[in-house]
Amino acid sequence: MEGSQRRLVMMAGDGESGESCRTFVFKGENHTLGNALRTVILQNPEVIFCGYSMPHPAEDQMLLRIQTVNSSPAQEALKKGLEDLKDMCHNVSNTSHINYEDVYEPAEDSYLMLDVLEKQLKELKPPTICVEIGSGSGVLIGGVASALGSVNAAYFATDLSPLACIATVQTGNTSSVPLNVLCTDISFGLDRLKGSVDILLCNPPYVATPFEEITAYKDDLIKASWAGGPRGRNVTDKVIRLCKDLLSPVTGRAFIVLEQCNDVDSVMEFTTEEVGLKADICGSYSKLPITYHRSSLPYVRKYNSHKAFYLMLDLPSLLGDYDDEFISRNQLSDNEPTDDYSNLEDNYEEVPHPVGVYYWGKDLKLGQVSGVAVDERNRPVIFQRGPVTWNHKSFDRNYVLQDKTPIEEDTIMTLHPETGEILRSWGKDLFYMPHGIAVDSLGNTYVTDTGLHQVMRFPLGSKEPDLTLGNRFEPGNGRNQFCQPSSVAVSDITGDIFVADGYCNSRVMKFNKDGELLDVLDGDWDIIHSITLFEDENIFCIANRNGQTIECFSTGLKRPFGQKMMLFEGVGCIFGIVAKGTALVGVIGKPDSSGITIDTSPNKGRIIDTWGKNEGISQPHDLAIFLNMGMSSML
Length: 635
What we know:
- By secondary structure, the protein is α+β, with helices and mostly antiparallel strands.
- Among the domains are: about 10-90, Gyrase A, domain 2, CATH 3.30.1360.10; about 110-275, Rossmann fold, CATH 3.40.50.150; about 370-525, Neuraminidase.
- One of its GO terms (biological process) is methylation.
């Protein structure tokens, strides 16, 4: 190239060094290309030095200096470096159109993910449906779509950021591949894809951060795209659980990025043991590179000291699942309570035989404790009534609360899991007759107040609800009403809210995360006192207190909402239930205060343990399971 169009100039050699030491001038280039070439060229064993400089910030040019061993010309090292750089990026979608002040810039993990996928995709059949969760710039889904083609295939992407969704569409356009993009949280709104996804991609926020940073960055979606909470797995675990529902049972496979701080062995165990998916590490890099962007040479890498892992998931060839016909306790021959705990071997790690620890929380001064839960940091949370008691004078015959004076002390308390000491308390002047409580994985607290006839959600750290369901002090059985709601459970996958409208209406109401009513399940139950979720199996269970049954139903993801799945009869007046793994644990108030543990795994469905009888339990009302010094503990 000549004259003003010349973009690369080789300066004269230095002294007697001849061809082995040269300086090259790149016009119209900057730090991006300098970092790129320096990193690549230094991998050449013939090169003993490579550096670059920018002579003046106002001049859009870069000086690159290369020194090689005497027998190797520096110009050849430069040519080889440029060729290697192009080889690194030739299969990657062009994202030079994106403003990275608004959208998270593709980084090293994405490009290493593409390297891994390039090897794996050769073994995969062209997909019918491919989904990326958290697409950002769209470089992953765009690269896969370019490699596999869009004939007879549909490519979907989701992202919480509207600007990222726009960027993903633009990436697809520049690569001439159609991408269907939905602005949503993880995969909310893609229910029709369940059981149909052939390839699922996800590069989640995996940086380990204090949990508070997740909500602190809710208005800064770029920062939120890397804040992963404790162990960096706040989103990762949700996506892994979701894979079981979304992946095709025949061809489905998921690829997820992990980082060393995520405790990869723990992720593998969680995936196989709790979720029930096959899991393999399909790639790892001991040095996680930093990526730079440039329109002419899009993607280059510079190494630092992190470690990346790439997790591949698919469904086992035979998945234990519930039959369409529900399991009835009365149909089983070995379902009676027993003092022989040999059956506990499979469930011991998740729910061992409970033993009372009477010193725990002994200094707490509480009123009636109506509800207990575990927060996002594995700390027990209690909901108590202070000086208020529920007796025959609390409500009139129309279920209207008689004393409308708010409780003038804190009603919600977060406790230390090892000592029971109060870490935080709040709720003064907010509630009238507390009952149920739940905390989701984002730290949102959900409560039911039977006096208010309402269900409320409080964001992490807030004392003001951002969602209130039901009419204040007004009982009713309409679509927007409750009558003494007793319990609430929340899906960490979809955000759906399941309310046991338990006392007067005896029904279950399902809402989405925005409070819109989705479904209602009516029944002839005699007070639904508690509700819990088996997320992995898409099942919720209710405690029919006075009917002395535990009944389980479909959440509506795989099967119709409310389809009966399991029934356990004659269990006593069951007040509270909680799901853990495949175990369903409950507390009984009458005839004797005690507890039971039920194995709900397929083809079993039996009571495997009874506990607490004659051990000081008095009028139990609810329970929760948390980790205390590495062991499962109950409250």
